[in-house]
């Protein structure tokens, strides 16, 4: 139940060789604490000026990926290119487009097409596009999403503020733009994540606010920060990389902000197949094993193991035990990489898990998928466990 770009269902085998590739959590300053991130310059404090002291438009690189038929790619690129108030370049990474979308947009002014030798997945494609970017800000947009003319400028403005790590858009359902697809994504302490507010009226989400996780459908981040964090890990291939990046931002003392007036219409369709199920479950566990502090893993260990047992039972009953077990095998075979990844993420953190935990939830209530059987009992047990466990997490 992790929300990631709907068009990131890639068919290449992600087991194969991969391409090279403190504000208080939830709001204002926490009394008596100051993270290293607070002491470092996070964004320009004054707008750059051009001739006649007129503010220069922010330099932005928008990255889109193309894979499969891509019937909406040209519309998505056209909408991005029409964004107001930006000095914009558009990079499209062709991960294996089988329709004519890439041919249509190739040669459009301000649009560059990159053609890697293999399908790099969502994570690798974003890395490739970001590596070629020249803008001071990066915006990632799904190829089946239509941005409003001022959406990207609003995202970039928020992402450039001090203390903000990334800004996520108000993602609406394309056929019902008055309804939310994602208003920022919740993160359960077991690593599960889903499209926040899905199917609810957008009028319920009128205010800018901090959110646990951004949606990979459309978000903005400073290029300097992306490079400092090294963006998405190519090993994720697709799914859950947006959740991992969000947790890393919070752990760095930076907020993830939902921007309600940055409206994006998304042709969203939730689907499952063996590859997607494998990636969702494997990548959730990668995030838990690398992003959580050791103390957190010990405290949450019983609940995490119980969740694994419940998910495996559901996988056996649902006929997808193979993808679930395949994910465990990948984790064991790549334990060296997991340890190295864990060392990196723990070294870069500035905020302990007990503080980040204030942004997380113990209740599973996705609006974009049917809740599994027994979720009510699971929620009751998880909420009790979480209430007690949070007291044992490190807070300073």
What would you note in describing this structure?
There is one protein chain. This protein has 396 residues and is of the alpha/beta class. It has 13 helices and ten strands. Strands 1, 2, 3, 4, 5, 6, 7, 8, 9 and 10 form a ten-stranded mixed beta sheet that branches. α8 crosses α10, α8 packs across α11 and α9 packs antiparallel against α10. The longest helix has 25 residues. The two termini are 31 Å apart. The relative contact order is 0.15.
Tags for this model:
396 residues, alpha/beta, ten-stranded mixed β-sheet, 13 helices, 10 strands
Query: What summary fits the major beta sheet?
Result: 10 strands, mixed
Unreliable sequence segments: 1-13, 16-46
Average pLDDT level: 89
In total, how many beta strands? 10
Order of helices and strands: HEHEHEHEEHEEEEHHEHHHHHH
Class inferred from helices and paired strands: alpha/beta
Summarize the structure.
Helix content is about 35%, strand content about 15%. The protein is α/β, with parallel strands linked by helices. It is globular.
How is this fold's topology laid out?
Blueprint: H1 36-39, E1 59-68, H2 73-81, E2 87-97, H3 101-105, E3 111-114, H4 121-131, E4 137-141, E5 145-147, H5 151-159, E6 164-173, E7 176-182, E8 209-210, E9 218-222, H6 223-229, H7 241-251, E10 255-266, H8 274-291, H9 294-318, H10 321-333, H11 335-348, H12 353-356, H13 375-389
Helix pairs in contact: 8-10, 8-11, 9-10
